[in-house]
C-alpha cells in the first residue's frame, strides 16, 4: 500500500492541482464509458432483432413483454447482489467479473432455439449486466472529487446512448447479411476486448504506482464534511443492507430510481416497435431515427453533468446545485406527452420530442447517481447504487406487467395501438416531476451519512 493515503493534502489543491494533471482519472472515465457502451449495445440487440425473431418464433406483444420482464427481474435481483459483491471485491475485479459474464450471456443468445430459451438467456444477461452501474459509480467516486462526479458520470453514462446508437446502425445490417445469431455473437465478443484493457490499465488511486501525490490530494480534496476519506483503502467494515435501508437518503434514491428507470427501459425496448407500428419503418430504415434519439441522449448526459457544475462554480453547494439541476431536467421531460400529436404532423417532430425526453433522462441519471456519493461513504456506494438499481428494475417490471403488457396487447388486438402510446407518453412525462418532489421531500438538504467506524 502506498503511503499517499496518510499524507496531508496541500493547502489549495482545487486551485492548483487540476491544471497540470488529470490524465489518469479521465482515462479511467473513458474505460467506464466504453464498458457502458458495450453494456447497452448488448441489451439493445434484441429490440432491433424483434421483427426477425417474431417471424422465426411467432411472438406476439405478450411474448416479447414476458422476455423483457425476464431481463428486468434478473437485472433487479442482480443489481442488489452486484453492488454488494463489487463493494466486497473492489472495482477492478468486480467490474471485470461482471463484464466477462455478461459478454458470455450476450453471445449465448445465438444458441437459443425457443421462446422459453430467450427468457432464460435474457435472465442470465440481466443478472450479469447489473454489475455495470454499481461498478461505474464506485469507480467515479474513487477517482473524482465531488465537484466533478456529475460530469464524469454524465460522460460515462453517455456510453449507454452510444451503445444504443451503434446498435441500430449495425445490428439490422448484420442480421440481414449473415443472420441474427451473428448479431449476438459479434456484439457480445466486444466485452472481452474491453476486459483486457481494464485489467491492464485500471487500479484504485491508493494502489496506482504512477499517480502523483498532487492528483491523489485533488481527488480527495472536497469530500463533504462528515464523510470519511477511506474510499481508496477499503479497510473499514461494510454496512449491511438493513443498515443502509434505515436512512432516508437511501429511500430518496430508491424512489427516484423506481419512478424514472422504467421510462428509460420503455425507450430502449419499445422505441423501434413504436417507429415500426406508427410509421411503418422496417429493418435498416429504423436506424436513423433511433440513432437520432440516442445522439440527443448523449448530449443530455454530458450536459446534465455540466449543469450542476455551473451552479457550483457560482458558489452554490453541490447538493443544492444537483437539486436545482434535477428540477430543470424533470421539466424538460414533460413535453413528451405531446409526442403523438406532433408525430401526426411529421414523424421527425415525434422523434425530436422523444429525443429531448431521453436526453433529459440521461441528464437526470448523471445527477441522481451522484447524490449517492454526495451523501454516503465511498465504501457503501456500490451497495446503495445496487439497491437503487434493484428498485429501478422492479419499477420497470411493474410498468411492463401492469401497464405495457396489458395496454399494448389490448390496444393492438383492437387495432388502436396509438392509444397505448398516448398513455405511455403521459406516464413518461409525469414520472420525473413526481420523483423530484418525493426525493427532496425526504432529503431537503445535504445530510452526509456516518456509519460505524467513521471518524
UniProtKB/TrEMBL annotation:
Transmembrane segments: 24-41, 93-112, 182-202, 251-271, 291-312, 324-342, 348-369, 381-402, 422-443
CDD domains: MFS_ExuT_GudP_like
Topology with respect to the bilayer: Multi-pass membrane protein
Cleaved signal peptide residues: none
GO cellular component, one term: membrane
GO molecular function, one term: hexuronate transmembrane transporter activity
Localization per record: Membrane
Domain Major facilitator superfamily (MFS) profile per the UniProt entry, residue ranges: 28-447
Keywords of the record: Membrane, Transmembrane, Transmembrane helix
Family annotation (Gene3D superfamilies): MFS general substrate transporter like domains
Matches recorded under Pfam families: MFS_1
PANTHER family per the UniProt record, alphabetical: HEXURONATE TRANSPORTER, SOLUTE CARRIER FAMILY 17
Annotated protein name in UniProt: MFS transporter
Amino acid at each position: 500500500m502506498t503511503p499517499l493515503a496518510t499524507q496531508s493534502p496541500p493547502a489549495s489543491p482545487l486551485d492548483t492541482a487540476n491544471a497540470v494533471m488529470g490524465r489518469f482519472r479521465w482515462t479511467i472515465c473513458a474505460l467506464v464509458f466504453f464498458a457502458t457502451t458495450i453494456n447497452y449495445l448488448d441489451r439493445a440487440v434484441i429490440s432491433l432483432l424483434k421483427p426477425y425473431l417474431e417471424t422465426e418464433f411467432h411472438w406476439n406483444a405478450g411474448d416479447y413483454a414476458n422476455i423483457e420482464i425476464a431481463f428486468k427481474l434478473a437485472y433487479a435481483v442482480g443489481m442488489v447482489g452486484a453492488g454488494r459483491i463489487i463493494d466486497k471485491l473492489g472495482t477492478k475485479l468486480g467490474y471485470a467479473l461482471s463484464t466477462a459474464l455478461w459478454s458470455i450471456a450476450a453471445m449465448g443468445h445465438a444458441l437459443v432455439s425457443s421462446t422459453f430459451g430467450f427468457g432464460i438467456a435474457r435472465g442470465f444477461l440481466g443478472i450479469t449486466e447489473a454489475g455495470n452501474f454499481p461498478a461505474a459509480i464506485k469507480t467515479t467516486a474513487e477517482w473524482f472529487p465531488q465537484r466533478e462526479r456529475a460530469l464524469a458520470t454524465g460522460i460515462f453514462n453517455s456510453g449507454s446512448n452510444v451503445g444504443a446508437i451503434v446498435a441500430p446502425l449495425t445490428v439490422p445490417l448484420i442480421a440481414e447479411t449473415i443472420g441474427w445469431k451473428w448479431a449476438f455473437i459479434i456484439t457480445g465478443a466486444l466485452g472481452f476486448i474491453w476486459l483486457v484493457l481494464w485489467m491492464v490499465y485500471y487500479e484504485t488511486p491508493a494502489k496506482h504506482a504512477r499517480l502523483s501525490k498532487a492528483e491523489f490530494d485533488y481527488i480527495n480534496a472536497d469530500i463533504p464534511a462528515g464523510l470519511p476519506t477511506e474510499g481508496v483503502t477499503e479497510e473499514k467494515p461494510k454496512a449491511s443492507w438493513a443498515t443502509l435501508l434505515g436512512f432516508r437518503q437511501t429511500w430518496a434514491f430508491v424512489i427516484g430510481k423506481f419512478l424514472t428507470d422504467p421510462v428509460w427501459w420503455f425507450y430502449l425496448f419499445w422505441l423501434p416497435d413504436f417507429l415500426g407500428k406508427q410509421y411503418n419503418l422496417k429493418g435498416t430504415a429504423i436506424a436513423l431515427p433511433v440513432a437520432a434519439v440516442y445522439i440527443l441522449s448523449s448530449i443530455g448526459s454530458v450536459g446534465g453533468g455540466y449543469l450542476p457544475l455551473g451552479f457550483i462554480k457560482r458558489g452554490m453547494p453541490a447538493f443544492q446545485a444537483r437539486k436545482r439541476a434535477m428540477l430543470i431536467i424533470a421539466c424538460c421531460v414533460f413535453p413528451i406527452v405531446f409526442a403523438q400529436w406532433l408525430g401526426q404532423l411529421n414523424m421527425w417532430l415525434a422523434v425530436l420530442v422523444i429525443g429531448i425526453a431521453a436526453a433529459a433522462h440521461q441528464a437526470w441519471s448523471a445527477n441522481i447517481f451522484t447524490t449517492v456519493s454526495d451523501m454516503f461513504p465511498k465504501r457503501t456506494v456500490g451497495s446503495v447504487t445496487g439497491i437503487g438499481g434493484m428498485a429501478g428494475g422492479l419499477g420497470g417490471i411493474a410498468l411492463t406487467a401492469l401497464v405495457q403488457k396489458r395496454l399494448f396487447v389490448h390496444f393492438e388486438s383492437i387495432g388502436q395501438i396509438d392509444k397505448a402510446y398516448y398513455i405511455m407518453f403521459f406516464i413518461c412525462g409525469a414520472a420525473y416531476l413526481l420523483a423530484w418532489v418525493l426525493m427532496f421531500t425526504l432529503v431537503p438538504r445535504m445530510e452526509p451519512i456516518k456509519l460505524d467506524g467513521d471518524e
